Amino acid sequence: MTASTRRWVRAGGILVVLLALLFPTHATAAPPVTGAIGDTWQRVRPMIGDPLEPQFCGLQQGGCAQRFQRGSIYWTQRTGAQEIRGAIRDVWGANGWERGISGYPTSGEFCGLREGGCGQRFQNGNIYFHPRLGTHRVFGAIFDGWARVGWETSTIGYPVAGESCGLAGRGCSQRFANGFMYWSPASGSFAVTGRILDHWAANGRQAGRYGYPTSNESCRTEGGVRICDQNYQRGRITWRSDRGIVTQSAATTTPVTRDPAPARSQPGGRVDCSVQRCVALTYDDGPGVHTNRLLDTLGRNDAKATFFLVGDRVPANAATVRRMRDMGMEIGNHSRSHPTLTGLGSAGIRSQLADTQGRIRAAAGVTPTVFRPPYGARNATVDSAAREQGLSVIMWSVDTMDWRDRNSSTVTSRVLNQAQPGSIILMHDIHSTTVDAAPAIVSGLKAKGFVLVTVSELLNGTDPGRVYSAR
Ligand code: ZN
Fold first, then answer.
1. Torsions phi, psi of 113, nearest 5?
2. What is the 3-state composition of the chain as percent helix, strand, coil, each rounded to the nearest 5?
3. CA–CA separation, 407 vs 411, rounded Å?
4. What is the pLDDT of residues 197-230, one digit of tens each?
5. Helix (H, G, I), strand (E, B) or coil at 298
6. Which residue in the list 144, 229, 284, 285 is annotated as catalytic?
């Protein structure tokens, strides 16, 4: 060994000691990543890196989450475990995380959209990233209207700003790359773009002579002339490639096909939900101390609803149950004592359903044909117990989260923003805030052209054991 080799060996030894000090191999163990969050992490680890801290639970809707080097994973029973990262996570976080209007992510981020965009689905709407236009949320009625014209592939393209509300008639609008979406409870949710937008804007938009749009624009070619029409509350705007803008005021406008058509119940007849815009309001967990007040509101407005009753509450409230029957409300089964039925054996499930059928029959002489499992918890055993009792299984398509927020205006706006023809809307009449919201919900839905019907009317009858969540 030469002197110079000895120097290298000594230097190497010092280096080894230094490295051992700097990078101890038995430092704090990485936090574990387990369960559904662990399953998702296996898939997205290259994108979000390693855990920064252990999983934490107790979030809204019973959710859990875990933070990673470059993102998070959020889990709930209903949404599964979804990763969220980057600009979409920043926008979501800035708007209240899972407590914001978007709710939890229901998909991972998906890329490869037009112009290099990415998107992610949430419980209420989506969030979109565009390399030049930024990252913005689209939710509620504006999301629904934008979806109908083709999302980011529509003529108006990607969102370039958030939604802004407080317009005339409680309307909202949102700016997109090539136009706007406008929504109000009375007019619906429609896109405005191009030359028609220019003309409408020059005439004062929704506050001007035309009011809100009541259709999307529809275009055609006649004898080599391109013609586009759009209907508004107080007239129609037409653009022709040969003559430019041609307008008609409401007085001279032939009855236009409103999209969607305003609903009208047939006088004295049954509602036909295959042609009308029906929704079913459903109220769980009663009867309770607020139920009669809710029935007053529904009766005043000639609105129907479905009540999923807890059997244990029926005997003491038999008069209320009879009043429901007399008013034409639908009475459904919501188990005897509101347990998580999937945790019971088939005998336990059967007695929960059968006892409630018996109590409702004893109180009001009617036998329910619709059943809603407490917490929405169902499996094959629950479904077959329902079938044995002649009950269909009624889930929902709009979850108002009224039990969580206990805020009348929040509940009202969720219903009005999310109701679609055929929706089944979940609420709980044991909360005074939900009952307080009923007048605004009923009048708001009617203003949007909805007819309020029972679940059985909405579905035109149901089959025992079959599961429904919307028409
Ligand atoms: Zn319940």
1. -75, 170
2. 35, 30, 35
3. 6
4. 999 999 999 999 999 999 999 888 888 889 999 9
5. helix
6. 284
